[in-house]
Structures are given as C-alpha cells and as structure tokens.
C-alpha cells in the first residue's frame, strides 16, 4: 500500500519539477526568432555575398589573382587613346573596358582575400546571406555591364588602332636608312680635324710626327711642354732645355733617350 502512494508522489513530483522549468522560462526573454520573417542582425564585418561596383572597377585583375579557388573571371579590352573611360570615385583613370567580370559564388569560400587588394575598393562583402538557387548556373554572378555589341566595337577599335600603329612603325623604320647616309659625311670631317691639331702644335714637334705618324696625337700633348721652355727661355734654358726637349720630343722611344741625360748629370 505504501509503495502505491510512493509511486503517486513520485509522479506528481516529477511533473512539478518539469513545470518548474516551464514556469521559469515563461518570464525570461525569448531568444528564438521567427526566421525568415525576422532576421538576425549580422556583425559588421561578416563575410557573405560579394558585390562589385563596376563603375569603379579598372580591370586590374588583382582580386582574381588573390582568389585561392579561382572563382573570379575577368576579361578586359584595352581602350584606344581617343576614348576617355573616365575616372573612378577615388580618382583612378580607367584605361580598360571590363567586358567580363564573373564570380562563381558556388565555389567561393568567403575568405575575403579578393577584397583587400582592390585599389578602388569596388569589390566588397555585403550582408546578404540568402542566395540559394535551384540551378547551379544561377550562382555565377555576372557584373559586367557591356553588351556584346559594345565589346565587339571596342575590340574593333583596338584592332584598327594597332594596325595604324604598326603602319607608323613600319614607315619610321623605312625612313631610318635614308637618314643614315646623311650622317656619312660627318665622320669624314673627324679625321680631318686631328690633322690641324699637330699643325697648331708648332714646327718643333713636326719632326717627331714624321718619325711616328700614328702616334701623332700623343706627341701633340708633349709638344706643350716644348712650348713652355720657348716662352721662358731665359729662366732655365741651358740646364734642361737643351736636354729635356730632346727627351720629351721623342716620346715614341722615350725609354732610350732618357738614358742620355742621366749620363750628362753624372759626368759633371
Ligand atoms: S571571398 Fe575568397 S574565395 Fe570568394 S571570391 Fe573572394 S577571394 Fe575568392
Ligand atoms: S581588384 Fe577591384 S578594380 Fe581590380 S579588377 Fe578586381 S574589382 Fe576591379
């Protein structure tokens, strides 16, 4: 009999314990939100869906190079000098048409490495995290805004410009040989110029050059000391003027003539 009442008490007691927890949570703040009607606010730097502002994209490809899973595909077309593509919001000049800018978000691992190297800060993470699709192809986001006709026109302009530049280069190359012979006479004048130099050197070195014609320029330098004694003959003409000029003038064979003066010095 006592066991019967004991069992009834245990049943009531456990219900009261369970209800105690329920009653306690009736007066606490709810933490569950009614998603998707209610959405939780994400942290400021959360990584979610990528977005590219094509008005600021210069097609530098740095984001694609930084991507570790190669989910960014960029194609560009060079603009010609006569086309002004304008500036980005940070003042960078745009020189390339961005004909394709695709991000395969199905491959993306949300590492954020593509965001940091962008020089114009035009690729960024958004707070959009709901972009499930039925078709995988729909997860490739295409940001380029050029139409196929615009891309073709840009490519045609570039091809025409390249051809024009190639023609100009060919014309310049053809004109070069015509300019080269014009320089021919100039070198002919140069050999004539050294000839006057020895002539100006004076009559005294003229004897030496005759013996050593190829070394003519060198004696010209030596001839200057010869001129010096000529200007100052009274100062010290006798002691060295007689011997030194003789040693200086034959610079073609300087080693042997210097031997003679020492003999003179020793004899006296
Ligand atoms: S977040 Fe990472 S994986 Fe995704 S596109 Fe950028 S670099 Fe590539
Ligand atoms: S790094 Fe920035 S500017 Fe360069 S291609 Fe990528 S999105 Fe465009």
Write the layout of secondary structure elements.
Elements: H1 2-26, E1 50-52, H2 62-66, E2 72-78, E3 96-104, E4 123-125, E5 140-142, H3 148-182, H4 185-192, H5 196-201, H6 207-211, H7 217-231, H8 237-241, H9 244-248, H10 256-266
Antiparallel strand pairs: 1-4, 2-3, 3-5
Account of the 3D structure:
By secondary structure, the chain is mostly helical. The protein has a domain at 50-150: 2-Layer Sandwich (Alpha-Beta Plaits). The protein is built from ten helices and five strands; from the N terminus they run αβαββββαααααααα. The strands form two sheets. The protein has a three-stranded antiparallel beta sheet with strand order 2-3-5. A two-stranded antiparallel ribbon has the order 1-4. Bound molecules: iron/sulfur cluster (2 copies). The site of one iron/sulfur cluster (SF4) has 15 residues, from helix 2.
How is this structure best summarized?
The protein has 268 residues and is mostly helical.
Which terms summarize this structure?
single chain; 268 residues; mainly alpha; Alpha-Beta Plaits; 3-stranded antiparallel sheet; two-stranded antiparallel sheet; 9% strand; rod-shaped; binds iron/sulfur cluster
């Amino acid at each position: 009999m006592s066991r019967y009442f004991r069992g009834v008490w245990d049943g009531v007691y456990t219900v009261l314990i369970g209800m105690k927890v329920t009653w306690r949570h009736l007066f606490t703040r709810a933490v569950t939100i009614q998603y998707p009607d209610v959405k939780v606010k994400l942290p400021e730097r959360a990584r979610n869906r990528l977005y590219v502002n094509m008005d600021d994209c210069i097609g530098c490809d740095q984001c694609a190079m930084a991507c570790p899973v190669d989910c960014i595909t960029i194609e560009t077309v060079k603009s010609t000098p006569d086309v002004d593509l304008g500036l980005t919001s940070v003042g960078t000049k745009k020189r390339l048409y961005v004909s394709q800018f695709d991000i395969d978000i199905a491959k993306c691992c949300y590492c954020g490495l593509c965001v940091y190297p962008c020089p114009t800060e035009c690729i960024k993470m958004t707070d959009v995290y709901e972009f499930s699709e039925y078709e995988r192809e729909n997860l490739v986001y295409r940001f380029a805004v050029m139409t196929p006709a615009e891309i073709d026109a840009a490519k045609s302009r570039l091809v025409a410009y390249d051809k024009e530049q190639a023609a100009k280069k060919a014309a310049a190359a053809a004109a070069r040989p015509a300019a080269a012979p014009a320089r021919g006479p100039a070198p002919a004048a140069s050999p004539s110029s050294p000839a006057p130099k020895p002539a100006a050197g004076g009559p005294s070195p003229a004897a030496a050059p005759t013996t050593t014609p190829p070394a003519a320029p060198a004696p010209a330098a030596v001839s200057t000391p010869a001129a010096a004694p000529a200007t100052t003959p009274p100062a010290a003409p006798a002691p060295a003027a007689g011997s030194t000029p003789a040693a200086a003038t034959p610079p073609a064979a300087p080693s042997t003539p210097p031997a003679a003066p020492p003999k003179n010095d020793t004899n006296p």
